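Sequence, please.
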């Protein structure tokens, strides 16, 4: 277990998953270029620690979560599917106790839920240095791509409270640096922070904001997770960390922040104030367009005595965010199954940029079942942003995009099996006619039944006999070496 980001970095280095870059590298474009090369290595490349960013004494950590192994390490599991199974068991408690003995059996579950709650502490490492007159110019903030509007803070954990209810939200919204004391606040309209700001504007109030940089790995992930509205990201972080996340009060705003963070930016956003933000080289692989966004005003910087500046690079996939997205795919699948138990598996391929392509396998039980699943997903939290949903039968491996392409090409009649609808789109969707609103497509690539109007005989998949398959595997392992699994793995 690692209590903070420094412990996580030390553990990745111990396992040989970290590369230190000792020579000076410029935060303007050069760190991004090196990170991009590393990210494109098979498996995601190593975590990187730039020890001498040009002009700064503070090291830069990037691509920390850019592999499946490091993502699992960050979330304290052997595989991401282990998390899904754990969440599923947590969501399926024992039946109501029939007596005192049954009630006692439920005590560990109650204790586990209590252990998820954050706790307030008097002080923490993030307050070792307090600068009420500090500026952003002392941080090695990157200019990522040549066409960017400026320097960007790309891995901020943005803390806000609903001005009416006091409910907390932690989101990750990029922050373009305008000068040493102000940044943009890229609150997309569908996000929790944006809702808090709308309430503050309606009330004519200033919204206080705190931004944590380099917090615990579990909390870094949780800020990116598609949490249902009203659920505190700190609960998820506590679940992943197997401990209560420690919070400490800010010095100039009425908010609490992670005590173990490396750097905290305190400040506020005024109602009605807007400034041009962008362009920005985004995770779509294209520059998101410039637009007007709220402005964050800095009131204080607090930090550790020896902080690390934690950041991320997004761009043409695959990059680090692919593995953060894969974690969400596996963690939230059990939650989706609570609404749609017929779903067997789900895959958001890197090339689909999370929301552009979703592949789902189902246990098909009745005519039109695939279309029911599509429509349900478009009404389910952030699944509403899915531009293309492909539904296949349960015997299709959705994690194998090649197999899915084969099945779609052989199981789908374009006129019969494609449906269109319209609805909300991600703010970064650039192909729709209107911002954040456009069309979506569902593809039913399941086997068609007579009750769905298919009157011909459905063809049978070509497979090797079991006996021949076992014999072939023995021969192949002798010829090609053990562990090859034979040609084309288990697809046949």
């Amino acid at each position: 277990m690692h209590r903070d980001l420094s412990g996580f970095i030390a553990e990745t280095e111990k396992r040989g998953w970290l590369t230190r870059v000792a020579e000076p590298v410029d935060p303007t474009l050069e760190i991004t270029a090196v990170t991009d090369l590393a990210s494109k290595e098979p498996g995601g490349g190593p975590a990187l620690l730039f020890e001498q960013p040009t002009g700064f004494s503070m090291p830069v950590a990037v691509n920390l979560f850019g592999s499946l192994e490091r993502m699992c390490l960050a979330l304290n599991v052997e595989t991401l599917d282990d998390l899904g199974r754990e969440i599923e068991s947590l969501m399926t408690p024992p039946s109501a106790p029939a007596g005192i003995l049954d009630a006692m059996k439920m005590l560990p579950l109650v204790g586990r839920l209590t252990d998820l709650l954050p706790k307030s502490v008097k002080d923490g490492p993030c307050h070792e240095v307090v600068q009420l007159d500090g500026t952003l110019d002392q941080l090695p903030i990157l200019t990522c791509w040549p066409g960017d509007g400026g320097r960007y803070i790309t891995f901020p954990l943005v803390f806000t409270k609903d001005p009416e209810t006091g409910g907390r939200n932690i989101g990750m919204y990029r922050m373009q640096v305008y000068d040493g004391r102000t940044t943009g606040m890229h609150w997309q309209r569908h996000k929790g922070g944006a809702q808090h700001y709308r309430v503050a504007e309606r009330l004519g109030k200033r919204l206080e904001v705190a931004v944590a940089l380099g917090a615990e790995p579990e909390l870094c992930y949780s800020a990116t997770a598609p949490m249902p509205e009203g659920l505190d990201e700190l609960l998820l972080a506590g679940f992943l960390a197997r401990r209560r996340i420690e919070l400490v009060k800010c010095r100039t705003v009425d908010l609490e922040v992670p005590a173990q963070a490396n750097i905290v930016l305190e400040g506020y956003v005024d109602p009605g104030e807007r400034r041009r933000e962008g362009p920005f080289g985004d995770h779509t692989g294209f520059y998101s367009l410039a637009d007007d966004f709220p402005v964050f005003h800095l009131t204080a910087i607090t930090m550790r005595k020896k902080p690390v500046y934690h950041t991320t690079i997004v761009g043409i996939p695959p990059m680090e965010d692919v593995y953060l997205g894969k974690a969400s795919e596996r963690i939230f699948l059990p939650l989706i199954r609570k609404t749609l138990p017929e779903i067997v598996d789900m895959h958001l391929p890197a090339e689909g940029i999370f929301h552009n392509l979703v592949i789902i396998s189902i246990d098909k039980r009745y005519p039109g079942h695939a279309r029911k699943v599509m429509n349900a997903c478009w009404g389910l939290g952030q699944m509403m942003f899915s531009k293309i949903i492909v539904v296949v039968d349960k015997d299709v491996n959705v994690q194998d995009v090649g197999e899915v392409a084969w099945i779609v090409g052989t199981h789908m009649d374009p006129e019969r099996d494609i449906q269109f609808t319209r609805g909300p789109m991600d703010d970064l969707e650039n192909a729709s006619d209107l911002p954040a609103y456009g069309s979506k497509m569902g593809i039913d690539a399941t086997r068609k039944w007579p009750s769905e109007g298919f009157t011909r005989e459905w063809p049978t998949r070509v497979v090797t006999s079991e006996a021949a398959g076992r014999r072939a595997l023995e021969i192949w392992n002798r010829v090609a070496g053990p562990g090859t699994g034979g040609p084309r793995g288990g697809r046949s």
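Confidence is low (pLDDT under 50) at residues 486-492.
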